[in-house]
Amino acid sequence: MAEKLKYFIHGEYVESKTTKYTELYNPSTGEITGYAPCCTKEEVEEAIKAAKNAYPAWANTPVIKRSQILYKLRQLIEENLEELTELVATEHGKVLEEAEGDVLKAKEGTELACQVPTQMMGDSLMNVSSGIDTVLYREPIGVFAGIVPFNFPAMIPMGWMAPMCIASGNTMVLKVASMTPRTALRMAQLYKEAGLPDGVLNIVTCSRNEAEIFLTHEDVKGITFVGSTAVGKHIYQTAASHGKRVQALCEAKNHALVLKDAALERTAAGIVNAGFGCAGERCMALPVVVVEEEIADELVAHLVRLSKNLKVGPAYHKDSNLGPLVTEKHKESVVKWIEKGIEEGASLVLDGRNIVVEGFENGFYLGPTIFDNVTPEMTIGDIEIFGPVLCIKRVKNFEEGLELMNKNPFANGSVIYTQNGYYAREFTRRTDGGMVGVNVGIPVPVGFFPFSGHKNSFFGDLHCLGKDSIRFFTESKCVTTKWFDEEEKKSTVVSTWDGTI
Predict the structure, then answer these.
(1) Which domains does the chain have, with CATH numbers?
(2) Which of 250, 278, 283, 391 is catalytic?
(3) Is residue 77 within 8 Å of 194, Cβ to Cβ?
(4) Is 283 a catalytic residue?
(5) Model confidence pTM above 0.85
(6) What is the mean pLDDT of residues 218-242?
C-alpha cells in the first residue's frame, strides 16, 4: 500500500502539515509506491532552526569523537548494504550492480570523513619573528544546506554532502529529491543509530519555492548543490550575494575522442558501459563519441552489436543490464530528444523507443539508442539528454576532434581512447574537461580527489570531495602569540609586530 512519507528533523520522522505531495514510483513496474511531502515554508525553517540549535554542542565535540560516529556509520552501511541496494534499485531504477555502486560510493565518502582529524590539521611556524609564533586552525562554520538531484539517492546526499560537512563540525539540512527520497531517509536513521546527536542532520522534501529559503536565510552559511546548470547558476548567484559559500555541480555533455589506433573492441565495450549505465541518468555518463572517420563505421558496428546484447529489465532482477528511467515524465522528455535528433537529420542506427519488457509493460523502459553522423549544429550532440542516447560525431583527426570537444559549454569529464602516448598527453593537457580519462570511460576519481567539473558544469571555488571538501566546510583562523620572560614583563617598552619579518 502506498504510504505518505515523513520528513526527518530533531532525530525523528515527523508528519508534514502540507496538503501537497509528490507521487513516488517503482520505475520497473510503473506503480505508485508512496507520496513525498512538499514540506511547508515553516517546516523548512524549523529544520534550519534544529540544525542551528544543534551546532554549538556539535562543533564543540572533539573531532575524534565526531569521526568515531562516522566509523560506526560506515559499519552500519556495510551491514545494511543489501537493503540499501534494493531500496535504490526500487525507487530509482538502477540495476542491482549500479544500485550497490551508488551505496558503496556513499560508504566511500563516509570513509573520507573518518579521516577528518588529520584533514582538519592546520599549519604552524615557530619564531616567525623574534619570540612570535603563528598557528593556523581549521574550524567549522555553522549550518549548511544540501540540495540533491534524483539520480544518486545514496552517493550524493550521503557520500558527497553529509559526511564531510558533519565530521568537520557543521550541521546540515538536506533537501533530497522528491522523486527518490527513501534511501536518504533510511540512511538518516543509520546516522542516528551510529550515535549522531539530534538536529545535526535534518532531511526535508519540498519544491523549489521552499528550497529558495536556504539561499537567503541568515542562519545558513553555505550551500552545496547538484543539479541543472540553470538552477545551479541561480543558486550560486543568489546565495553568494547573501554572503554564503556555494558549490554548484551542474550539467554535462561528456565527450570521448576515439583515435584510429584504439583497441576498438575494448573501446566499444567501455563506451557502451559509460553511455548506457544507469540508463544514462548521470552527469558523468558518456553520451557523445567523437571518432576519426577512418574507423567510424567499424566502431559504430561494434557499438550497435554490443548495445543490442544489453538486457533491458526490472532493476532488481539480477540478469538486467539496463533498468528503467526514473519516471514516465522523464522518459517522455528523453523520447522527445530522440525525435529531435531525427528532425535534425542525424542517422538513427539503433532505436530504443519501442522496447517492451514482458510482464512489466507499465515500467518506464527505454532501450539503448544510437545516433550516427551528428554534426555540430545539432542540439542533441551538445545538450544534456540524461537518458540512454549515444551520439556519434565524425572528425578527420585529433586536432579537429579536440577542437570540437572544447567548444561544448560543459566540461565535467572528457575521455580519449588511444594507444599513442603523445596524443594521450596532449589531450590531458589541452582538454577543457575537469576529470579526464585515458582509455577510461567514466573518469570519476576516488573520493580523496575532488569531483572537479569546469565551465558550465560547476560554479564555485571549491569542489566537493578531496581536499577541496574540507576547505569548503571549514574556515581558517590564524593565531599569532608572544610570551614574555621576567625581564620583558617589567619593561615599559611595548613590543609590537606589524607583520613585517
Answers:
(1) 3-250+457-478 (3.40.605.10), 255-438 (3.40.309.10)
(2) 283
(3) no
(4) yes
(5) yes
(6) 98
